[in-house]
Amino acid sequence: MVTATPSAVEERRVPSPPGRNPGAPLDLGWVREAQANRSAAERRAATMTARRTVKKDWQAAWLLRAVTTIDLTALAGDDTPGNVRRLCAKARQPVRQDVLDAVGAGDLGVRVGAVCVYHNLVAVAVAALAGSGIPVAAVSTGFPAAQIAHAQKLAEIEASVRAGAEEIDIVVSRAHVLTGDAQALYDEVRDFRAACGPAHLKTILATGELGTLRNVAMASLVCMMAGADFVKTSTGKEAVNATLPVGVVMARAIREYHERTGHRVGFKPAGGIRTAKQALDWLALMKEELGDRWLRPDLFRIGASGLLSDIERQLEHHATGRYAAAHHQPMV
Questions:
Q1: Which stretches of sequence are listed as region Disordered (predicted)?
Q2: I want to staple 242 with a disulfide (CB 3.0 to 4.6 A). Which of 66, 80, 233, 278 is the partner?
Q3: pLDDT tens digit string along 74-112?
Q4: What CA–CA distance (Å, rounded) separates 203 from 321?
Q5: Of the listed 229, 232, 281, 287, which one is catalytic?
Q6: pTM of the predicted model, to two decimals?
Q7: Known active-site residue 268
Q8: In angstroms, what CA-CA distances link 27 with 128, 188, 216, 259?
Q9: 90 is catalytic
């Protein structure tokens, strides 16, 4: 776990309001100072996963923690209200009760972090999750490409909030990052934050389309200054989605932002995370780079659709010593 060293910056920290990042004025000097060394980030990611491992009961506990951080996602072109209702039923009971009982977690109330859907299915998900306490997240702002007018983006956010979404996953305009226009990116995300009202704002950087890790670091800082409650790697629709080296860069930007402002910002990797082993790698990265506080669902989420099935399969293997057939852990 990384522990911050007391400093003059540390002494000036302002306590963060519960659950929200209020943002900060855009500091272009800070943004321009951002650096990212690709070879160092790749080396850090490789050595971390090679030396950090958990086994037996510890592995089961970490996997259960991973379940609580999943944004269970339905973002396909053939989604229907019936599919979403079944997904919400899985969100309420993400792991079969007999498996939970077998690993000693039957009374822990394990549930996922959120259910993430397109705007037109928000009302369906809200109704299906009523009384569960599981929030609905809506992808917005012209997801996944963000190639619609700014006014339409704001209207889409506002409509999703009215429909009951408690979290909004917006997509930033990649052009602002690629052309180095930090002010335009800041203003855009600031407008999105205002449109969200009480809903938490998760900003998707689409890191696979930003060109360099330095761009990833700069975009992360600008979005946090603009009031993002989470920074998220990807839409899941890019050719390259969540990678551990990108995670290292974004986690260190989050740490630097916290050290300078006292405000905590969450992190959400998304896209291509399909196995229990990958989930454990991301949890290890959070623990090593940001500490235990970022292992909770209010500050860490994994955007995934198929991941839960493999985690449930691994938990059943832990309990019984046998791998179950795929139909024993259906998603919908």
A1: 1-27
A2: 233
A3: 999 999 999 999 999 999 999 999 999 999 999 999 999
A4: 41
A5: 232
A6: 0.92
A7: yes
A8: 43, 16, 16, 15
A9: no
